[in-house]
Amino acid sequence: MKPLECAVVAIVDNAVYVDGVRTDNPPSLDLTYEVMRERGGMAWIGLYRPDDSEMTSVADEFGLHPLAVEDAVTAHQRPKLERYDDQLFVVLHPARYLDDTETVEFGEIHVFVGPDFVVTVRHAESPNIGRVRTRMQEDPDLLRLGTEAVLYAILDRMVDDYDPVVAGLENDIDEIENQLFDGDPDVSRRIYDLSREVIAFQRATHPLVKMIGQLERGSDKYKVDIELQRYLRDVLDHTIQITEQADTFRANLQNALAVQTTLVAQRQNDEIRAMTEVSISQNEQVKKISSWGAILFAPTLVGTIYGMNFTHMPELSWRYGYPAAVAAMILMAIGLYVIFKRQKWL
């Protein structure tokens, strides 16, 4: 088994299965249709970013709904499950955690499921559908259950791949909690970026709960094997667990942002308080300097006036003029000191 390798061809892998066993590897889609009809088997076609002509070929052969085909070509669809008669069209958003950048990378895969065919259309490097195909080929009993088993295996692989994402996000949140109380100025930005990734992760995982529930409810109507129904319930339980963890992550980040806001406000208040205390201390110093300046100014004023040595000045020839001037200086200084002391400037 070897996928077709050609830069301009969108066919990643193309095979026909009969009774759970890979029987042929047609080199083209036309041969795949022919072999599938001749042997009464199941076709599993993997496409990577197909163009209109390739999708038209598949759509015409299997009678795919035009709206679903249009979605598969244009991509950028929300996760969803739509049923067209006996066919299913499923849009999934796989994810992987990138350790180097500590970010989550999201992909997109569209799955067409019919009674005797599965067509996967991938629009990103991940997920590796080849791993799913290998697993199914190693388990013929599971593959023998039909096209719904292939859809189950793709869902199971994608949900399992969410576990490293959950672990990576959990580790990032733990680091943020440590940064919060270390005063790291970049923590707010990191909380915001991580919140966006968690929201995107929620958008990828939350619809899965409803989608798998729809598959379960249709199991009896479309005669899905009971064992496969048990497998789907296991995937559903795993999905619910992951969505609950994602909800917890978002709540933790909201709390972290609230704590960060509180800490920033507290630091600002501390800075304002410190500045106020400095200002008050400076005011006290200014008061003291001003008080002593006024006290010294009073005797200086008297001494300056009587130091001008004009011929005609009051009390200049008075016997007690000097003692009186000195006494006036002292009394003025004492009086100002008492006044400033009462005003608590000194």
Structure description:
- The protein is 61% helix and 14% strand.
- The protein is an alpha+beta fold and 346 residues long.
- A seven-stranded mixed sheet has the order 2-1-3-9-8-5-4, sandwiched between helices. A two-stranded antiparallel ribbon has the order 6-7.
- Helix 8 runs antiparallel to helix 9.
- It is rod-shaped.
Q: Over the alpha carbons, how many angstroms does the gyration radius reach? A: 42 Å
For the largest beta sheet, what order do the strands appear in spatially? 2-1-3-9-8-5-4
Shape annotation: rod-shaped
The portion of residues assigned to helices is 55-70%
Which percent band covers the strand fraction? 5-15%
Mean pLDDT comes to 84
Structural class: alpha+beta
Number of helices: 9
Main β-sheet, in a few words? 7 strands, mixed
Question: In terms of quaternary structure, what is this?
Answer: single chain
Low-confidence stretches: 1-9
Following the backbone from N to C, one meets helices and strands in this order, namely EEHEHHEEEEEEHHHHHH
Q: CA-to-CA gap between the ends?
A: 97 Å
- In total, how many beta strands? 9
Task: Reconstruct the topology from this structure.
Elements: E1 11-18, E2 21-24, H1 29-39, E3 42-48, H2 52-62, H3 66-74, E4 80-84, E5 87-92, E6 95-98, E7 103-106, E8 109-113, E9 117-122, H4 129-137, H5 140-143, H6 147-180, H7 187-217, H8 226-306, H9 321-342
Parallel strand pairs: 3-9
Antiparallel strand pairs: 1-2, 1-3, 4-5, 5-8, 6-7, 8-9
Helix pairs in contact: 2-3, 4-6, 6-7, 6-8, 7-8, 8-9
